[in-house]
Amino acid sequence: MQLVHVATAAVNQTPLAWDENRANILEAIAQAKDRNVSILCLPELCITGYGCEDAFHASGVLRTAAEVLEEIVPHTKGIVVSVGLPRMHGDGIFNTSCLISDAKIIGFAAKQNLAGTGVHYEPRWFKAWKSGVCGYTELSGQKYPIGDLLFDCGGVKIGFEICEDAWTAKRPGRDLARAGADLLLNPSASHFAFGKQEIRKRLVLDGSRAFGVNYLYSNLLGNEAGRMVYDGSTLIASDTKLLAEGKRFSFEKVQLISAHIDVEASRSRRTQMQEATVAPTVSPEQWVKADFQFPKTLPAPTEESGAEWEKSTDIKEEEFTRAVALGLFDYLRKSRSAGFVVSLSGGCDSSSVATLVTLAVQLGIEELGHERFIERFSHLESL
Known about the structure:
Layout: E1 3-11, H1 18-34, E2 39-41, H2 59-72, E3 80-89, E4 92-101, E5 104-110, H3 122-125, E6 134-139, E7 142-147, E8 150-153, E9 156-160, H4 172-178, E10 183-187, H5 196-211, E11 214-218, E12 221-223, E13 229-231, E14 235-238, E15 241-245, E16 254-262, H6 263-272, E17 287-290, H7 315-334, H8 348-368, H9 370-375
Parallel strand pairs: 1-2, 2-3, 5-7, 8-17, 9-10, 10-11
Antiparallel strand pairs: 1-16, 3-4, 4-5, 6-7, 8-9, 11-14, 12-13, 14-15
């Protein structure tokens, strides 16, 4: 038995709000360290925010994202952390997750499947990385691996499926598992939609079961840029079991869950799978190795199992109410507005809006407490 304490976190980011985004990431790392976590998965593009749109093409944005990454690195002593950011390589910009181990950058896993339907326009900003390809990217005079990579951190093998990668028929996780991945990280920026949480759970559980791996899923949280609301879903699975599920639609800046996984048990499962006889499809060049000393960990119960309202028979109404309440809360503080003006006609629309604004206050105070709730609107003091 080789137990490893892992965690995944949702963070409430704002596009190009460098100081706030960095602070939330550092808070997630601090919380993970307080729990004696060894591996932490943070969401897709969490350094810049997901909704930067055409600003992703600005050289200043790419440069500042790299600078913030380097500021985060020293805070990862004694822990393995994945952090999402855009990265220029060759003639394209790629959506990457940087894996940091014990205050050292190991490499950048690049997203292979871009979301380009509905509210997503990723092909406008990024290029899709080709499966099986890897290269090197330079940062502050140092060269680091980038691409379709499999990381070996102190003997624990880590692969990536970045958001849309897990929603495609040919998931990268299958080849990574065949090559020996013990753990798949899925950093996501997956907006809220009715019933989507159950699909996420199925993707996480099916990936864990079919590939014979442990699976960590992280997501953004809140109304990031006025267009979409992220529910902050966080999931940890092993085999056919959901080990931990985080609270969605939280008013906190950071929402972290953790669980203990048994690496040796997942390896044993893979040896019993028919596909385990298939030759690994990951080339030696795609392997990235780093020293890391995992502490001895004792089994511990997992307490995170989602909020009670998730079991409601009126789940659609619950999701709608909480999504809009959190969206209003974030829109007000991030736009630095003084409040809401509600036109009361006495009809269904105006009464619904008034109710939702009221719930944004009530749910926020219920979770944060009155004092912390007021602190989140500190900009009102200057208006």
